[in-house]
Design a protein that fits this description.
By secondary structure, the chain is an alpha/beta fold. It is built from five helices and seven strands; from the N terminus they run E-H-E-H-E-E-H-E-H-E-H-E. The chain has a five-stranded parallel sheet with strand order 1-6-5-2-4, with helices on both faces. A two-stranded antiparallel ribbon has the order 3-7.
Length: 121
Amino acid sequence: MFGFSRSSGPAVGRMSAKDAVARHDRGDLVVVDVRDISEVRASGTASGGVHVPLMKLAMAADPRHPDHNPALDPARPIALFCAAGGRSQMACEMLLKMGYTEVYNIGGFGDWCAGGGKVAR
């Protein structure tokens, strides 16, 4: 009706957690957790993944920024998750607007775990 839930950003691909786990284990995919640090402390995060809170993602993803995280490479496939999928959707749209080309939304941390993803605490 009002379009509040509709995204005006680029189309984001969806990837099953099972596929993300398999690609991550092969080294074909960077997995990024965009939850807040308090959430990560409470539950852990994807083993071998990158934790960058959504509020810091734009800086960490920009190769020109002093706080750039070298694990975030616009040329590499990236899959993101949060608690339920909403923030990771926003993060995916942000990365696509920044020039990243292969970006996927896994959904939530529970999806990562259900897909067989290892957890680091």
